[in-house]
Amino acid sequence: MKIYRSKKAEEHLLITYDQLLGMWGVNYEECDIQTRYGSTHVILCGESEKPILVLFHGVGDDSAMMWVYNAKYLAEHFRIIAIDTMGGPGKSRPNSEYGKGFDRAIWIDEVLDGLAVDDVSMAGTSNGAYLIQYYAVARPERVKRIVCLAGSVPASGGNVMKVMFRIFLPEALFPTKRNIERLVHKLLGANSDAFLKNDNLMEHFKWLLKGFNNMAMSYHKFIPLSDHQIASLRDKSLYLIGEEDPFAQMGGKEALIRYGMNVRFFEQVGHGINHEIANEINTMMIEYLGDGNHTPLASI
After folding, report:
1. d(CA 291, CA 286)
2. Which fold is adopted by the domain 7-289?
3. What would the mean pLDDT of 189-201 be, rounded to a whole number?
4. Cβ(122)–Cβ(149) under 8 Å?
5. What average pLDDT does the segment 24-35 reach?
6. Through-space distance between the first and last CA atoms of the chain, rounded to whole angstroms
7. I need a labelling partner for 114 at 20 to 30 A (CA). Which of 74, 173, 175, 177 fits?
8. What is this structure's pTM?
9. What is the DSSP secondary structure assignment for residue 62, as one 8-state letter?
10. Residue 175 and residue 140: Cα distance in Å, rounded?
11. CB 46 within 8 A of CB 251
């Protein structure tokens, strides 16, 4: 499965990926972990003796872009492991086994095993929030706590693709400068300048829309969690959601309230919550997950 539509798109995306990494403002290292599904790219930063925090980005973006406003501050408290999703943009590269029955829990197992880490905290944005909820249910013994950004509980009855189409179309099909700006305004809240005024982010986003082959994520089948499984997450999870997030407005907010999850809503904030109000999100993540220097909060 090709990740990028053309060699030109891949070259531009990798150049802008590295430019965004340079904006993290923290020393980092990159490595590739071999799994049965291919090579998984990982970015590591923060002192190795600190508590481990594993980060997952969303669909149609990557680690370099997702954590550009967060990595430096989180790395002061955690050993950060930022993973490029298999089949997504970034530097992970699937092999032929990826299309023969991809199992996300086994994939994450093999990444963590390859890094020789266990008993971790996790945070994820959008689809990354789904990944960490799924994994925390599948492997509760490996996950201490999770923070879900711009993501709701993956209950049955929703139509994820229908919601995606309503939000991203038609702008994503025709990624002109004007349409990209319109899409950013649809996704983000009052502080859309956190994206629009960052030239490196906008350039990378442009090439993602132009060059990423969305079908490469088609093997990530949505598997809803049962009511019992969702309830098992209640005491180990925190959800941080923007009131202006279109996904929240199309049922995500209501589901979080219905299931009684530990959630905080933010006015005038959209789907790019960890970009839009980075300082506040960084602080809440550090306080909830605990950094080894103080007692983690049971609930904020």
Report:
1. 6
2. Rossmann fold (3.40.50)
3. 96
4. no
5. 98
6. 43
7. 74
8. 0.94
9. -
10. 41
11. no
